[in-house]
């Protein structure tokens, strides 16, 4: 082959390679711009069979309360009477092993078995172990859960319905995560929830402890996470609220949540902007704010540190931070009583927390 032809061919190959490299360099900014939209998962709607199963469960829970002699009208008369005392339903919504089970076990052993029930919802597709002890066989029929999707609302409602069907004496319903710990004794928790006669919360004796916020800067983005004005007309922006995912609801409000169909039609819709989608932090505060704001304290009993949150996750406490001083600090609240629970803690904090259990955590 003539030398001139080889030179021309080499020059063409060099130019082609240069064009390819130059094109790739130009496309990098565009790739970074579009990657979040391409890679962000798009949740589909909740499967219809799951919806129908849940609806049947919720209807049974509402119906049995109406038929039961221990309905809400007679529930209040049980307090201070010779009848069995009302109970707290502790509802664990988890997607890993319950690695603080030993600490919670000691918490429950601090109280009377007649004053509480335990229910655990765990994604069936995950390998979650039964921790045994007081938690043995307390797993309820569960379905798939996914972050930034309404499946977390469904799971919480499933726990509420199961607890109502299981024991008519369940009156308070506390939603707990696997990274949450108790920071007071069981006796302290029970007394605070039921002995409110001398409180400054107003005429309503028994209220739900749920955070309800209306002036947060994130509200507009969260409201439009499913699309602009998709929440209308059921949920006007002026009624949209945000709050903690973890709450303590009265039986009245638990039933209100199970009866709801109107707001659920909106909140069950999948988001198109997943980075702004946290339905479980909006559904419960919005619903209870619209239906019975006076029956809610407006604050949560679970302490969370959002000062250095990452990707929507709050601060996670690790072993070097665990101390009696931390427990005392986590108890402090700007409202009329202490926090009763706190999150998030890493699993390797367990041994340190167990060492402090009797002398600090459960010493009120």
TrEMBL record:
Annotated GO molecular function terms are: glycosyltransferase activity
One Pfam entry name: Branch
A GO CC annotation given for this chain: membrane
Per UniProt, the keywords (alphabetical) are: Glycoprotein, Glycosyltransferase, Membrane, Transferase
Membrane topology annotation:
Single-pass type II membrane protein
Q: Which domain of life is it from?
A: Eukaryota
Where is this chain primarily localised?
Answer: membrane
Compartmental location = Membrane
Protein's UniProt name: Core-2/I-branching beta-1,6-N-acetylglucosaminyltransferase family protein
Q: Which organism is it from?
A: Nepenthes gracilis
Q: Lineage of this protein's species? A: Eukaryota, Viridiplantae, Streptophyta, Embryophyta, Tracheophyta
């Amino acid at each position: 082959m003539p030398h001139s032809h080889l030179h021309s061919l080499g020059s063409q190959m060099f130019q082609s390679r240069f064009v390819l490299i130059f094109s790739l360099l130009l496309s990098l900014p565009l790739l970074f711009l579009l990657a979040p939209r391409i890679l962000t998962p798009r949740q589909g709607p909740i499967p219809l069979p799951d919806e129908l199963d849940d609806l049947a469960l919720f209807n049974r829970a509402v119906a049995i309360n109406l038929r039961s002699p221990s309905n809400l009208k007679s529930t209040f008369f049980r307090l201070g009477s010779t009848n069995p005392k009302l109970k707290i339903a502790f509802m664990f919504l988890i997607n890993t092993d319950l690695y603080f089970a030993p600490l919670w076990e000691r918490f429950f052993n601090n109280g009377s078995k007649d004053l509480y029930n335990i229910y655990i919802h765990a994604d069936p597709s995950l390998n979650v172990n039964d921790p045994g002890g007081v938690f043995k066989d307390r797993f309820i029929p569960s379905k798939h859960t996914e972050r930034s999707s309404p499946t977390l609302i469904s799971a919480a409602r499933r726990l509420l319905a199961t607890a109502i069907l299981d024991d008519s004496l369940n009156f308070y319903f506390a939603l707990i995560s696997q990274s949450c710990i108790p920071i007071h004794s069981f006796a302290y928790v029970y007394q605070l929830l039921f002995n409110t006669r001398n409180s400054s919360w107003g005429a309503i004796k028994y209220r739900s402890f749920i955070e309800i916020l209306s002036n947060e800067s994130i509200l507009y983005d969260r409201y439009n996470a499913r699309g602009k004005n998709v929440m209308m007309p059921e949920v006007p922006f002026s009624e949209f609220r945000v709050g903690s995912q973890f709450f303590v609801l009265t039986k009245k409000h638990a039933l209100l949540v199970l009866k709801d169909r109107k707001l659920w039609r909106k909140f069950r819709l999948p988001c198109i902007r997943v980075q702004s989608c946290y339905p479980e932090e909006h559904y419960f505060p919005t619903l209870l704010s619209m239906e019975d704001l006076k029956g809610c304290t407006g604050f949560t009993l679970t302490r969370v540190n959002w000062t250095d949150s990452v990707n929507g996750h709050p601060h996670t406490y690790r072993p070097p931070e665990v101390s009696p001083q931390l427990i005392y600090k986590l108890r402090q609240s700007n409202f009329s009583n202490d926090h009763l629970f706190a999150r998030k803690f890493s699993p390797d904090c367990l041994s340190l927390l167990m060492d402090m259990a009797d002398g600090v955590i459960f010493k009120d």
